[in-house]
Write a structure and sequence with these properties.
single chain, about 130 residues, alpha+beta, Dna Ligase, domain 1, 5-stranded antiparallel beta sheet, 10 strands
Length: about 130
């Protein structure tokens, strides 16, 4: 039902079992989310490729000293319930050890970037 949640869970599970990369179907929105994750260091590399069955995203999993960079993902907005917020109302995730990602008029951004640009939007997910 929710392609972004599916991709995020796929990345989290691949990191948990030690996989190097995942392959997800391509869409502009998925690509924007993966690009934002790459910018914040949750993903090591991102590549768009064309195959016989269509375009795909190859996402390389990022690992830190203690394991994968993504331990958990919590989807905030769902297809049945959208959550919107202003730049001044962002909340901290895991006492600052996680990030909040939003879909804004300026694209998919982390809460830090959105606060710098003073732009709000739909809260997509929390990640730590």
């Amino acid at each position: 039902m929710d392609p972004i949640a599916d991709m995020l869970i796929q990345i989290k599970n691949a990191g948990a079992i030690g996989k190097e990369m995942i392959i997800a179907p391509y869409s502009k929105f998925r690509y924007a989310v993966a690009k934002a994750l790459l910018k914040e260091g949750y993903v090591a590399a991102l590549e768009k490729k064309a195959r016989k069955q269509g375009k795909v995203l190859e996402v390389k999993i990022a690992y830190g000293k203690n394991g994968p960079r993504i331990e958990e993902v919590k989807k905030s907005s769902k297809p049945s319930r959208r959550i919107y917020t202003q730049a001044k109302n962002f909340w901290r995730v895991r006492q600052g050890h996680g990030d909040l990602f939003l879909s804004t008029p300026a694209g998919v951004l982390s809460a830090r970037e959105a606060k710098k640009k003073k732009v709000g939007g739909e809260v997509l997910f929390e990640i730590w």
